[in-house]
Design goal:
Number of domains: 2
CATH superfamily of the largest domain: Vaccinia Virus protein VP39
Helix content: 25-40%
Strand order of the largest sheet: 8-7-6-9-10-12-11
Radius of gyration: 19 Å
CATH class of the largest domain: Alpha Beta
Distance between the termini: 40 Å
Length: 275
């Protein structure tokens, strides 16, 4: 049990520890670990990580860890029970790849099979990105860069919204495998260039850059984004806790970005900036 403000960094750490899957619940996170080869110091490592966040952020973090054994069987498929069709905007529905379209009548439908590790489009940070893309997509021929693509949902939507050239980059090869599968599911396998690596390996410039990451990563990428955004290009940043929004605004403003919009949902914020 832990406040949702800390879900993203904690989930990343749990994957580093070897979890096979995560469920995001109201007020907490449920992570699955196979008993064979389980680290005997697992709980201690999680506690130390949270205490490290406390020290770094200079705020108290209330948490509780429970360790339960469950029977083997369908547990690897249980996360699918929590993934339902989601209307991400008035124009877009995100649908599990294994569900029928039924009576869904939005202009766009994205089918997603995220595996257990990546975004389904239901998280507020993803939904705000999708909304911002709809509003601020260029009216001319445009190029898009999706940084930290995960399931590939933002790159897929860029294709639906008419981007002429799309690059989706991630440092995690597994993420790119998932993104490739989702591109194929949506009939877009040849529309997006998938790249494994960091943004400094990219040499081109773009009319729209989307990055749904944590605040620390976004701050570290500020200079790189400035080098890769075209004049008057749109930068959409998400994954920001509201209390950290001023840090993002200040850093990017100093580098010459102009704020176009701020979108908030629950305790999360996205900021749209012009290069």
């Amino acid at each position: 049990q832990i406040d949702s403000r800390f879900h993203d960094p904690l989930c990343s750490f749990l994957f580093d520890l070897g979890t096979s899957g995560i469920e995001i619940l109201d007020g907490g996170i449920k992570a699955y670990f196979k008993e064979s080869g389980l680290d005997p110091l697992l709980i201690q490592k999680i506690e130390n990580y949270i205490k490290g966040m406390e020290k770094e952020l200079s705020i108290p973090i209330t948490f509780k860890i429970k360790f339960l054994r469950i029977e083997e069987g369908r547990w690897e498929e249980r996360w699918k029970e929590f993934f339902r069709p989601q209307k991400a905007s008035n124009r877009l529905t995100v649908l599990p790849a294994w569900d029928d379209i039924g009576d869904i009548n939005t202009q766009y439908i994205i089918r997603i099979d995220p595996g257990m590790a990546f975004g389904t489009g239901m998280h507020p940070t993803t939904r705000m990105c999708l909304k911002a893309m709809e509003i601020y997509r260029p009216s001319f021929s445009w190029r898009m860069l999706d940084v930290g693509t995960g399931s590939g949902i933002l790159a897929i939507y860029a294709a639906y919204l008419g981007a002429d050239s799309i690059v989706a980059i991630d440092i995690d090869q597994e993420a790119l495998t998932v993104a490739k599968r989702n591109l194929s599911i949506n009939g877009l396998k040849d529309r997006v260039n998938l790249v494994c690596g960091r943004t400094d390996s990219i040499r081109s410039k773009y009319d729209m850059i989307c990055a749904n990451l944590d605040t620390r990563s976004l701050l570290g990428l500020c200079i790189d984004f400035k080098e890769k955004i075209n004049d008057r290009g749109i930068l959409i940043l998400s994954g920001i806790v509201k209390v950290e929004l001023e840090d993002i605004y200040s850093r990017f403003s100093i580098k010459g970005f102009k704020c176009r919009d701020i979108i908030c949902m629950d305790e999360w914020a996205s900021i749209v900036m012009e290069g």
